[in-house]
Specification:
- This protein is about 0% helix and about 50% strand.
- The strands form two sheets. Strands 2, 4, 5, 6, 9, 10 and 11 form a seven-stranded mixed β-sheet that branches. Strands 1-3-8-7 form a four-stranded antiparallel β-sheet, with no helix packed on it.
- It is globular, with a radius of gyration of 13 Å.
Length: about 120
């Protein structure tokens, strides 16, 4: 059973940076990892999905956010630069066994393991 726990959220001024981490335990073989976010009153949206071979970013994150997973599959990170107020949300890491399918970026229901989330607030 895979367990995920996010950390690194906080408050930052617009234009600033934050680095989120997701501690992973129990992961073996290939897993698709993802970062999602959910702002108040909005649907949860995908930021990035990644596996050993590929990464796919949402348009809102392209060029500003960068995700990485270590080879031991114990940590997933999300480096967020040039943050905007509209990036404010609760950020979640998620996982699903196997290689990523591109449509999973929009289909959060595909993911079987979730962390509890970490709040990111970007002030204007």
């Amino acid at each position: 059973q895979v367990h995920l726990a996010e950390s690194g959220g906080g408050s930052v001024q617009a234009g600033g940076s934050l680095r989120l981490s997701c501690a992973i335990s129990g992961m073996e073989y290939e897993w698709c990892m993802a970062w999602f976010r959910q702002a108040p009153g909005k649907k949860r949206e995908g930021i990035v999905i990644l596996d050993s071979d590929n990464q796919k970013y949402a348009q809102a994150a392209e060029g500003r956010f960068s995700a990485a997973r270590n080879d031991a599959k114990t940590t997933l990170t999300l480096q967020m630069n040039s943050l905007k107020p509209e990036d404010s949300a609760v950020y979640y890491c998620a996982a699903k066994r196997g290689y990523c399918m591109t449509w999973w970026l929009r289909d959060d229901f595909e993911f079987t393991s979730w962390g509890r989330g970490t709040q990111v607030t970007v002030a204007s």
